[in-house]
Each structure stands twice: as structure tokens, then as C-alpha cells.
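[agent] plan:
  1. take the single chain provided in the ticket
  2. run structure prediction with default settings
  3. attach C-alpha cells to the ticket
  4. add a short note for the reviewer (M.T.)
[agent] executing step 1
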Amino acid sequence: MARAATTSDAFNAIAEPQRRDILVLLRAGERPVTDLARELGMSQPGASKHLRVLREVGLVRVRGEGRQRLYGLDARGLRPISEWVGGFEHFWNESFDRLDAYVQHLDRTRQEDESR
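[agent] step 2 finished; step 3 output follows
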């Protein structure tokens, strides 16, 4: 089966761990590619390729400042991912509620056993 193009959407773009790492770094603010490459232990051309993919899917924006290009997070591009993950929130809430009820049941049983 052929692999989907990584530039087709945000889901494919963030499937690459190094791209997720770049997004994490950009949460703190704009950074030049050289800083990102150094922080992540990759070459500048490698970091530039990842940034191009992230920019093409709308997760990163770039602006020039003098001779430097600064990259920043554009979190609006994460909306489809957030909406998709949010669809599982009900499932997780129910799971945690059941776990909480079970733990409370165990605590009551333990306290009853200790009082005997």
C-alpha cells in the first residue's frame, strides 16, 4: 500500500515525531530554523524540510526579520485534530468515572474490613 503524502493534512504532518517536537518548541514563541535544528539535534536542511511540511498544512507560519526567517506556531491548524480527539472525551470521562467508582468501592470494602 502506498504511503499517504505527509503534506496532505495536519494528521499526516504530525505523524512524524520530529515535527511534533518542532511544534512543542514553537509553543514558547517564534524561533529561527537554526535554533530549532540545534535544539532537536538535526541538520538545518532537515529542520527546514519539516518546517516546510508544517507550513504547507497550516501549522506553522513564517515571517522575515532582517536576514532571518522566524517560524511560529499557528495553532488554528490543529483544530481538526482537536475536534477529532475531543470526540473521544466522552469515552474517557466514562472510563475514568467507572474507575473512580471502583476505587471508592474498594476503599469502602477496606474500611469495612478494618472496622471488624
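[agent] step 4 note for reviewer: Residues 37 and 66 are 20 Å apart (CA to CA).
[agent] ticket updated
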